[in-house]
Each structure stands twice: as structure tokens, then as C-alpha cells.
């Protein structure tokens, strides 16, 4: 942030350096988690955005103090693993069953007038099937391997880190793309005039789930995984 050639910096790096920028990227519809490996210029070109306007908003944050409590890139890896489990995994595990039920319910009731709801229910079912084993593998295999390497430098655990991160990065991409499709199908969670209470709650929870997933994947893709891979050297 505040450095020359901001347009060439990767989205994920910008958010890693200043987490407050995540809100700006959300406002402009830019993916900072799974899409965090592209430059600011490329992201703006893909979205047909004025990079000068976006850069100005990002640079304004340089004059504001950062909250050191959420300077994730400075956290120890074992602490970051525990934070992800206690914060984001708990959120996912709470919302998955609720949204499985709600997305199917509104598809059954409103699907005739809003056929996109059937597609949303199908996509969320696929996300559910992907994330449950994904979280389990992180908690029982990857995160313990990271902690083991920190303590003992185990070669076996280093091999686990390499294979698990490669696979889990692909699973992140799948979940991110599926939520992006749900966002587009719902017109960014825009409620129709005939939306009932369950319809309203479902869209609010889907938006909450997507926001949490973006932060969750950002912490892993752009901070945890690179630092864990650096332990292998």
C-alpha cells in the first residue's frame, strides 16, 4: 500500500498488507481470495473498472491506522491455524446445514417463478459436499502437519503439507467459483417482490456465507499456505 506501481501488485498481497482493503475489493466486486493472484491492473481490466478510482480509495487507507489485532501476516502459523478453525470453520459448519435446508425449501416453493433457485440449491449442495471433508482434512491432517513441522521439522509432515495444499487449493477454487455463480444467479442476492421470510433469510445467509468464505480462503491461500510451504526449504 502506498508504494509505486500499485497497479502491478497482486490483489492478495494488497489485502495481506492491509486487511481493510478487503471491503473496497468487495464493493467493486473483485475476488481477493481465489482470484488474489492477479494484479490490480488485470483485475480492473477484467471488470472494466477505472483503476485510478480504485487506486485512490486504496491509497486513502495508508493514512489510517491499521488494527494490529488483525494483522494476520504477522501471526504465528500455529495460532493462525487455530484462529481459522475457531472462527471460519465454526461459521461454515453452522451455516452449511441451515443453507442446505433453506436453499432447497425456497427452490421447492418459488422455483416455478424463479428457476434460478433450483440451480442455486444444486450448487450449494455441491459446496456442502466439498467443504465438509475439506474442513475435516485441514483439521485432522494439514494443520497438525504444519504444527509438527514447526516443532520437529518432520520430513514426513513436510510431504503432507505439499500434497494437501496442492489438493486443497483446487477445492478452494471450486467452492469460490460455485459461490460466484450463486451470487450472479441471485443478482448479488437481490430479493424479488414476492420473496417470503425464508427467501429473505436464505439470501442474507448466503451473502454472509460468501463474505466469510472470501476471508477464510484469503487467510489460507494468501497467508497460511505460502508460509507453510516456506517451511519446506
How many domains comprise the coordinates?
2
What's the count of strands? 0
Q: What sequence of helices (H) and strands (E) makes up the elements?
A: HHHHHHHH
How much strand?
under 5%
The secondary-structure class comes to mainly alpha
Helix count?
A: 8
What radius of gyration results from the CA coordinates?
A: 19 Å
Distance between the termini: 28 Å
Mean pLDDT over the residues: 91
Sequence stretches where pLDDT stays below 50 over 5 or more residues: none
Could you describe the 3D structure shown?
The structure is a single chain. The chain folds into two domains: 6-70, Orthogonal Bundle (SP0561-like); 76-230. It is built from eight helices and no strands. By secondary structure, the chain is mainly α. The longest helix is centred in the middle third of the chain and has 37 residues, at 116-152.
Features:
single chain; 233 residues; mainly alpha; SP0561-like; 2 domains; 8 helices
Give a brief description.
The protein is mostly helical and 233 residues long. It is 72% helix and 0% strand.
Strand and helix layout:
Blueprint: H1 11-17, H2 21-27, H3 40-47, H4 51-60, H5 77-110, H6 116-152, H7 155-185, H8 197-230
Amino acid at each position: 500500500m502506498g508504494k509505486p506501481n500499485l497497479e502491478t501488485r497482486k490483489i492478495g498481497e494488497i489485502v495481506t498488507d492491509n486487511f481493510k482493503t478487503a471491503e473496497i475489493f468487495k464493493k467493486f466486486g473483485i475476488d481477493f481470495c481465489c482470484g488474489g493472484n492477479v494484479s490490480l491492473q488485470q483485475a480492473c481490466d477484467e471488470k472494466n473498472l477505472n483503476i485510478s478510482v480504485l487506486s485512490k480509495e486504496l491509497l486513502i487507507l495508508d493514512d489510517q491506522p491499521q488494527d494490529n489485532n488483525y494483522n494476520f501476516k504477522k501471526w504465528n502459523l500455529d495460532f493462525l491455524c487455530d484462529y481459522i478453525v475457531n472462527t471460519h470453520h465454526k461459521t461454515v459448519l453452522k451455516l452449511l446445514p441451515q443453507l442446505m435446508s433453506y436453499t432447497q425449501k425456497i427452490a421447492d416453493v418459488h422455483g416455478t417463478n424463479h428457476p434460478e433457485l433450483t440451480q442455486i440449491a444444486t450448487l450449494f449442495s455441491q459446496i456442502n459436499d466439498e467443504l465438509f471433508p475439506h474442513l475435516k482434512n485441514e483439521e485432522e491432517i494439514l494443520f497438525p502437519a504444519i504444527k509438527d513441522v514447526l516443532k520437529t521439522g518432520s520430513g514426513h509432515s513436510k510431504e503432507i503439507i505439499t500434497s494437501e495444499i496442492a489438493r486443497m487449493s483446487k477445492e478452494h477454487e471450486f467452492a469460490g467459483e460455485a459461490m460466484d455463480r450463486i451470487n450472479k444467479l441471485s443478482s448479488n442476492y437481490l430479493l424479488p417482490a414476492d420473496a417470503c421470510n425464508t427467501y429473505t433469510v436464505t439470501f442474507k445467509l448466503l451473502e454472509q456465507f460468501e463474505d466469510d468464505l472470501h476471508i477464510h480462503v484469503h487467510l489460507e491461500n494468501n497467508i497460511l499456505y505460502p508460509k507453510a510451504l516456506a517451511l519446506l526449504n
